[in-house]
Amino acid sequence: MLWTNHLGGTQRMRFVMALAGIAALAVSPASMAAPAVPGAALEVSGGACAPAGDLHFVCGLKNVEDLLPVDAGRWLVGSSYEEGSAGLYIIDTLDKSARKVSFSVGARPDPRYPGCTPPDFAHLLTHGLDVVAAPGNVVTVYAVNHGGRESVEMFRLRADVATAQWVGCVLLPRYAIGNAVAALPDGGFVVSKFLDQRDSKGREHLLAGQVNGTVYRWRTGHGFEEVPGTRLAGDNGLAVTKDGRWLFVNAYGTREVVRVALSGHGAARVAKVDFNPDNLRWTADGRLFVTGQFRHLGAPIGQDGWETVVLDPNSMRTMPLLRERGRPEFDDAASTVQVGSVLWISTFRGDRIAYRPAP
Q1: Which of 224, 252, 272 is the endpoint of a domain?
Q2: How far is the C-alpha of 20 from the C-alpha of 188, rounded, in Å?
Q3: Cβ atoms of 274 and 307 closer than 8 Å
Q4: What is the rounded radius of gyration, in angstroms, for the C-alpha atoms of the chain?
Q5: Which of 120, 139, 171 delimits the end of a domain?
């Protein structure tokens, strides 16, 4: 059964932004974008982007909640968790600069996603990402979007010129507020439901350990179905093994990483962490970076501090990697990826991403 999305864009956006601690922004009527031209470079004052401790920064961004390497790490693609800011960013890992992505509608939308119209690119609000190599000098980007609708949007991205063609979308199930997405080997994807549109105190409820989320699997011709064993407190980051057998999902409210079989057969395995786990990212040696914040029930979002650990996907044991106190310059890290000997770290709130040598 393919579920439909029913809440109006303005009401949904206010709800999402209130829970994230960000001011609500209204959605304007959709408009079609002109054909994409190379994305514009961002201008940043050098003094405002000075290092802090062992962290260096690429600045001039807006709430890059998630990021992933593309083209063997020559570039990073980053989301933008603020409506009307960029939609997507491209970060140059060599000269440590960034550009906004320029969007257009592809001449040949992907036939796997029928019946979905292009979004208003000016109001994209992107959250979790995944990337899959595509023919030619492009990658397919899967992006959870809150701008105007709750959806997973698909783009064909050329990172070298910072352009992306929209090729399709899937609207999320009714009442779901999405978070992370992970592509599957069969051409489908999984997406986490972090919050419910009907629960105005969802953030408080999930931090108290209340089960409110799940993970949905989407397949062409089948639509959505719940993945067994994934009803958790604030389903957040996702990762899937290359063979499509195992799914890892972060339970943000109970500070757990849960491993389940996508088939629905077999017992779940759980790893406990001492922070609220946000995103999961694969390492070159087949382990997982788990990154998140130190959040507490009743406390406003502030200088929370954050941590990244390395998870062995077989034993479900973790090893410490980074632990940072909250800084005015950078806090609330959400994702960590490694390119060569450098770690790159995102945040869901702030005007920059961080990088530093790997320990």
Answers
A1: 272
A2: 28
A3: yes
A4: 19
A5: 171
Is 300 within the bounds of a domain?
yes
Do residues 20 and 154 both lie within one domain? yes
pLDDT values of the chain reduced to their tens digit, one per residue, 359 residues: 333 343 444 444 444 444 444 333 333 333 344 456 677 777 655 568 999 999 999 999 999 999 999 999 999 999 999 988 999 999 999 999 999 999 999 998 999 999 899 999 999 999 999 999 987 789 999 999 999 999 999 999 999 999 999 999 999 999 999 999 999 999 999 999 999 999 999 999 999 999 999 999 999 999 999 999 999 999 999 999 999 999 999 999 999 999 999 998 888 999 999 999 999 999 999 999 999 999 877 767 778 899 999 999 999 999 999 999 989 999 999 999 999 999 999 999 999 999 999 99
